[in-house]
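Human: I hope this is not a bother. Would you mind checking the protein record under this note? Thank you for your patience.
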Amino acid sequence: MQREASDQRQISITRLHLESVTLGISLRDCSSRLASTAKARIYDKVRRAGGQLARCVNDTVNHYGSSAEHVFATVSPVSTLFDAMSESDYVGIAETLNAAAIDIGLEAIGGYSALCSAGMSAGDQALIRSLPAMLSSTDRMCASVECAKSQKGIGIAASELISSVLAGIRSVSGPAGYRPDRISVLANASGNSPYVPGSFHGIDEPEVALHIAVSSKYVHQQLLHRIDDGSSLDDAADDVANQVERLRRGGRFLSIRCAETLSQRSGMDVRPGRVDISMPVAESSVIHGNRTEHNGVSAASARTTTESAALAARQGLLSLARSTSSFAGAPIIRRVVKLDSTSSPREVTGLILPHLAEAVRNGVELILSIESTRQA
């Protein structure tokens, strides 16, 4: 009881906010050689596991004085479990998952994924080629393609195929609420990331697991004030570690409570999963062609040595916080690449490969979200 009260205090002290809650659902018991059978099993499994998710999250965070921004689900990599399917079969599975997400009130659902860091199967290729049709027929289904791992290097064939598909997507007319960032390219994917659209439920994960990303504008502002007041990185390092630990403990507490509540209401064994600290850092960048913005500040906008040093100090401090934040696994680096009507397959490959190479070299998990701003 004393530890529980202490964990609850961390929520209050840090003004903790759940940036995202992602329910990972295994579809290993849904496989079938018949697409119609597989789709029926998938729909039933997602409905049973996640039907009470949004309500459980809201009830839990309201009870403890916190808040939640996004509620997602993600499933086992579709191409891994249904490798014999055709492109049209894959699109049908995406539509089924999309319908289930709508029915249970989810903003998005991930797992329309292919893991191709060491090569592609026929199913992987079919799923990647089906992406334009998937985008046009769904509004909540998110796709990801893993193209690199530090242990294996970069899958060049997969990188070139996804680049060709992305370059071929002109104007995609989807249902209302269409999101432009529903495709991600991954490196060193862990299988338990709380970040849709770049997530999938790992094959070695529990049947149902609840992952969360927590943040705190209050903590973020306090850390920046230490730099703005003239504190050195060394002086601020202890504060970073303490604040991150408070966020982690508060997040872990909410994760356990949400999982327990959902287990009771769904009748399934929902395990608490990964707790990740979401903080804006230099690695969370938006790439516009050759121009990069860090936290909305262009590198070219720091006009003086003092401004440049201050920006570097801020990014260094937050990067330190980020590097110690993940409860499990390597830190997750999230980036965005925006494509336009002039992007050729070769140019798309040129935008993607440097980020994959950096992730492989540094051993970090990369979620590279692709936003298409194309017009027909």
